[in-house]
Write a structure and sequence with these properties.
single chain, alpha/beta, Transcription Regulator spoIIAA, five-stranded mixed β-sheet, two-stranded antiparallel ribbon, 11 strands
Length: about 600
């Protein structure tokens, strides 16, 4: 039976509209249509999308609640961001929606600024992602050290797990404090109000979430586990009035158009103005740091999820297009009441295992969640809060990667372990923004120290391993630097140079093994050469000169030193200068002092 293809006019339309000002848009969709999309692929995408939708439905509600909002806001995120990023992004298999990693960033915003503040921060994060894209900063994300990401990910998992204790035990806490330590104290003080019924529901849900994937690996465990516990808890509460548990319907109430809905309103996401009447410069300034954290974490997690999808499928995603899709998704979703979104690792892996073939699977997942809201919102109101808390405990456990964390802490160098533990503790005690900032700075300082240790400097004089050095006259000293000459190593490398060959008339400085030099290295080099010249010694620099060579073109070294293309040529010149008795000034004209002429030459 011949394959039925989509109309060629549709393929041409997508190709013609897929780029705006050379910005990559819908790369995955274009590749799918160009390769030929038939009815069999559509059927596979529909089935995969339904499976992912079944997984995303309870998880999106749980994440919306964990942030401190009614559950429908998590569902709106899955619907809008799941469809927009799938259509405009660069990965065929990525599923976008609310994720557990955002909880520690978004929950404090909700506590301080409410829903409007959270939605406004989401729009700002989308704008920051646009700026990152135009500045081509997307690739800088890959330079964030692994101990930093591992540390803050494990810390986020601990915070998420801690936040679920309240609902798992049914603790009577009206408002959770903002800081982690205060949360622990509040839950400890409320321990006498723990409910056996709530704990039983959470324990039953946990048991099913752990056992079902082993017994029935092809059936989505979250929906089956939460559905079974919901039915059991509802029957028990009607048969035994003393058996009472909090549900989505009893916890959340939404009024729309004068009608109050218990739990989730049976309505699709509606357009809205995220910031309402609260928009001002001071308001935006308060949210700027949180928006930056949302943008950075969203980009990191989304690109990481796409890379994992590539590993599962053997395909390759377009990171630039995926970042564009993430930008559009996060810009649009707040206008429909959704929270920040990024690539979801677990849902993406489920999508791949379910047989997805194109971005349409993620679109189907979004449509499934939308239909579930419209058709089954009444039944969702019976879901116990303890069951959703148990689901987030499983998410936190999987997210923590305890074995990998312990492995890194055991085998990594001590400096990396310090970064790992610092990011972990700072994420738990303070927040992820502080943890990542301190972690990156600490990792950068340790990296500079390591690079400085790699830069060696020595006086090559009367050393048997160097044939050239043995033939040098006493009036010539040879000094060699090997390794990058940047601000972390410049002072140490140049310190010994000033005392190199105190009895010599000419000093050869060999830079042939220096791959790069920065402004600090150049200043240290010029200062050291100046002090050597004041000691009535002349300097010959042996090349090839390190990159970037334009630094030397703009420096004053040409007017104070002799330059030679190699060590042998430099030694030959130094010997001639030493034998000549007087060492004249270098026969090189001084660089132009006019910046306009320099620009013109370039």
């Amino acid at each position: 039976m011949p394959r039925r293809r989509l109309p060629s006019s549709l393929v041409g339309f997508v190709r013609s509209r897929a780029r705006v000002d050379a910005i990559p848009i819908a790369a995955a969709l274009r590749r799918t249509l160009a390769a030929g999309y038939d009815a069999a692929a559509l059927r596979a995408d529909v089935l995969a999308g339904i499976v992912v939708g079944v997984v995303a439905l309870p998880l999106s509600m749980a994440l919306g609640i964990a942030v401190g909002l009614p559950p429908q806001h998590g569902l709106y995120t899955a619907i809008v961001a799941g469809a927009v990023v799938a259509v405009t992004g660069g990965s065929k298999f990525q599923v976008t929606g609310p994720t557990a990693a955002f909880v520690v960033i978004l929950a404090p915003i909700v506590a301080k600024h409410g829903l409007q503040g959270l939605l406004t921060a989401g729009v700002m994060a989308g704008a920051i992602l646009i700026a990152m894209g135009f500045a081509r900063l997307g690739k800088l994300i890959q330079y964030i050290p692994h101990p930093v990401t591992t540390g803050f990910t494990a810390g986020i998992a601990v915070v998420i797990a801690t936040l679920q204790v309240k609902d798992v035990l049914g603790l009577p806490i009206a408002q959770m404090p903002e800081h982690y330590v205060d949360k622990i104290v509040a839950m400890w003080n409320a321990r006498s109000g723990a409910s056996i019924a709530e704990a039983s529901v959470a324990a039953a849900t946990l048991a099913l979430l752990i056992l079902l994937p082993k017994a029935l690996p092809k059936i989505p465990a979250p929906l089956l586990a939460i559905g079974a516990v919901t039915i059991a808890a509802t029957l028990l509460s009607r048969a035994m009035p003393q058996f009472h548990v909090a549900t989505i319907g009893s916890r959340f109430h939404t009024t729309i158009g004068g009608v109050t809905y218990d739990g989730i309103p049976p309505l699709p996401p509606r357009p809205m103005i995220p910031w309402g009447d609260a928009l001002s410069f001071d308001y935006l300034r308060e949210l700027l740091l949180a928006a930056f954290a949302i943008a950075m974490l969203g980009a990191i997690e989304s690109l990481l999820s796409a890379v994992i999808a590539d590993g599962l499928t053997g395909k390759r995603h377009d990171p630039n297009a995926e970042l564009v899709g993430l930008v559009l998704g996060n810009l649009i979703v707040p206008f429909f009441g959704g929270i920040a979104a990024t690539g979801a690792l677990a849902r993406t892996a489920t999508n791949v295992r379910a047989g997805a073939r194109s971005p349409f699977a993620s679109v189907v997942h979004a449509a499934f969640v939308l239909l579930s809201i419209v058709l089954f919102a009444r039944f969702v109101s019976y879901v116990p809060m303890a069951s959703l808390a148990a689901l987030l405990l499983i998410v936190a456990w999987n997210m923590s990667e305890v074995r990998h964390f312990l492995h890194v802490a055991r085998v990594a160098p001590k400096s990396d372990v310090v970064v790992l533990l610092s990011c972990f503790l700072l994420t738990v005690v303070f927040d992820m923004v502080i943890a990542v900032s301190v972690g990156i700075v600490l990792a950068a300082l340790l990296f500079m120290r390591r690079m400085a240790e790699l830069t060696s400097a020595r006086t090559v004089l009367d050393q048997g391993e160097d044939e050239t050095a043995r033939t040098l006259p006493k009036s010539v000293a040879l000094y060699e630097i090997a390794g990058p000459l940047f601000f972390g190593a410049a002072q140490n490398a140049m310190g010994a140079f000033e005392t190199a060959g105190a009895q010599a008339r000419v000093v050869v400085l060999d830079l042939g093994r220096v791959p790069v030099i920065d402004a600090t290295g150049l200043v240290a080099l010029e200062s050291a050469i100046g002090r050597v010249r004041r000691a009535k010694q002349r300097v010959v620099i042996a090349g090839p000169l390190p990159e970037p060579s334009r630094i030397f073109d703009r420096s004053e070294l040409k007017s104070t030193c002799y330059l030679a293309p190699s060590r042998d040529a430099a030694i030959e010149l130094a010997v001639k200068l030493a034998e000549a008795g007087e060492t004249p000034e270098p026969p090189v004209s001084r660089p132009s002092t006019s910046w306009k002429s320099d620009v013109a030459k370039r």
